[in-house]
Specification:
The chain is α+β, with helices and mostly antiparallel strands. The chain has one domain (4-129). 35% of the residues lie in helices and 15% in strands. A four-stranded antiparallel beta sheet has the order 1-4-3-2. It is globular, with a radius of gyration of 16 Å. The chain starts with a strand and ends in a 7-residue tail after the last strand.
Length: 136
């Protein structure tokens, strides 16, 4: 993983939906299938390319793909990251209260810090590797 990168709130929503974790703020589209059902409706999901590929480093994409073809997997990934304005606000506020200035260990075993980027649209977090001072 890089030392610093950004991850959007929509990418966090995608991870939450793909793993069925902490999706209460995404109601009523808590899962990928319910998002895909809104396709063609006014204000509903439209298949689009995903945002930043760096989120792939934070999860095992193959684990949730379930043997999907590349096109189908792209549609599912796009649907997993879609948010209505109401859910974007609720989920974004929930993340801000829980994740801002949170430290975590990445898949590479190093420690990272999440920092909310204020006054930025779309809402996102800066992820920065923590530099550990050498002990004498």
């Amino acid at each position: 993983m890089r030392d610093t990168f950004e991850i959007t709130v929509a990418q966090f929503a995608g991870v939450a939906r793909r793993h069925a974790v902490a999706t209460h703020a995404l109601w009523p589209q808590k899962d990928i299938e319910s998002v895909m059902q809104t396709e063609g409706q006014s204000g509903g999901w439209k298949a689009a390319a995903t945002t930043l590929p760096m989120a792939d480093a934070l999860e095992d994409v193959d684990a949730w793909a379930g043997g999907s073809t590349g096109d189908e997997m792209g549609r599912k990934r796009s649907a997993s990251e879609w948010m209505s304005p109401k859910s974007r606000s609720a989920f974004g506020n929930a993340l801000k209260s829980k994740l801002n200035e949170l430290y975590f260990h990445g898949p590479d075993g190093r420690e990272y810090e999440l920092q909310h980027c204020g006054q930025v649209t779309p809402a996102r977090y800066n992820v920065e590797r923590v530099k550990v001072a050498k002990r004498a």
